[in-house]
Amino acid sequence: MDRNAECDTLYRTTVAEYGAALDRLAVAYEADPEKRRDLRQEIHLQLWRSLERFDGRCSLKTWSFRVAHNVAVTWVVREKRNKANLVSLEDIAALPRDPARPPDIDGPRAMERLLAMIRNLKPLDRQIMLSYLEEMDAASISAITGLSPANVAMKIHRIKNVLARNFHEENQHA
Q1: 159-168 burial by CB neighbour count: b if 16+ within 10 A, else e?
Q2: Of the residues 83, 104, 137, the one at which a domain ends
């Protein structure tokens, strides 16, 4: 089998196994449905192109998420270049609460609130949290981000604490 056929087979396998997760990743990086379609298309294009260089040193899942996160981060930077609304973990803790907002008691609204908080994270923190939510372990996330597994685990712990605290504070203030 030639290399192009191998890449096509790898791409079909990737989409079959991880397509839904890649779609969730796009949702977490882009709120606008029209722009999200473009982001998904860009992720799939770059993933297909990248499979020519896939050598099996990491899992297909790790490779796919590394490519998808890199595309999404580039997308966010390009889209938000003139807008400085990405915040650090420390800044998220200080975000103002809307006391008039009703509490979210159903799952979809709560998930949208969580995704909105994640969208406001800086790209590296967002990448770590989204990978964690896709049930990737610290070693896999380390392979994607280039951070050590211990650093990844520490960042996951910090991000979870900040997001949980802010999520619960919004419910208490509503």
Answers
A1: beebbeebee
A2: 83
Separation between Cα atoms, residue 56 and residue 15, nearest integer Å? 17
| Residue at a domain's end among 62, 83, 104 | 83
Parent domain of 44:
1-83
In tens, the pLDDT along 140-150 reads: 999 988 999 99
Residue 110, judged by CB atoms within 10 A of its CB (0-12, 13-18, 19+), counts as: middle
Q: 94: Cβ–Cβ under 8 A, 6 or more apart, which residues?
A: none
pLDDT digits (tens, 9 = 90+) for 60-97: 999 999 999 999 989 988 877 645 555 555 665 555 55
Give the separation between CA 63 and CA 143, rounded to whole angstroms.
Answer: 9
